[in-house]
Amino acid sequence: MNLPVYYYVLGTPLGVLGLFRWGCWLVRRIPAVLYRPVMEEHRLSMSLVVPVYQEDPHVFAAAIESWLAPAGEGGEIAAAGGGGRGAGGHEPIPHGALSETDRDDWAWASEAAARDVADGRAEQAVVCCWTGTGASIAANKVAGIRAALCGDGPTAAGARRWNDANVLALSLRATSEAELGEILDAWFGGAPSSEGEDRANVEHLRDIERR
Q1: How many structural domains are present in the chain?
Q2: Rounded mean pLDDT of 44-60?
């Protein structure tokens, strides 16, 4: 049976498109059918991060309290919005929502914690707010403060090493209790780099403040 030419003109592209779509489906379907879960013991390390949506700063306080301090002496830690004994043997100085006398707004609480560090009453500070950005901005307004907003352990370790950060800023919205423990371990277990290039960058920050 002879078909009109326009049947071929219209039908051929549609047929090719249909074959292409079926091919794409098969590419996904075949591996899905053949997939079998790995039943052997896993040897690679894995990290599961579960974000929390809890604005109450006392949740952070409880999490930090559960983070057991190792034996040994520590220094003073100014905490705005999160506290409790922990942080590598340090004794917190509470501010904000954890203080009966301080104003608990993030700008005032973060400033108070940062000034403890700047004035020598504390070695470091931990500040937090819903996103963490406001707390870090407020702390960085205080001369001599290098606040770092950290969402994971490697970021905290890098802030301590390369930036000599002295105020840790945290997000109440996005930091889970498990992630908090990793961040605190990395932060208080870290130390500033002694490399000349790293020290030069930190010194330049002081030069910027004096201008």
Answers
A1: 2
A2: 46
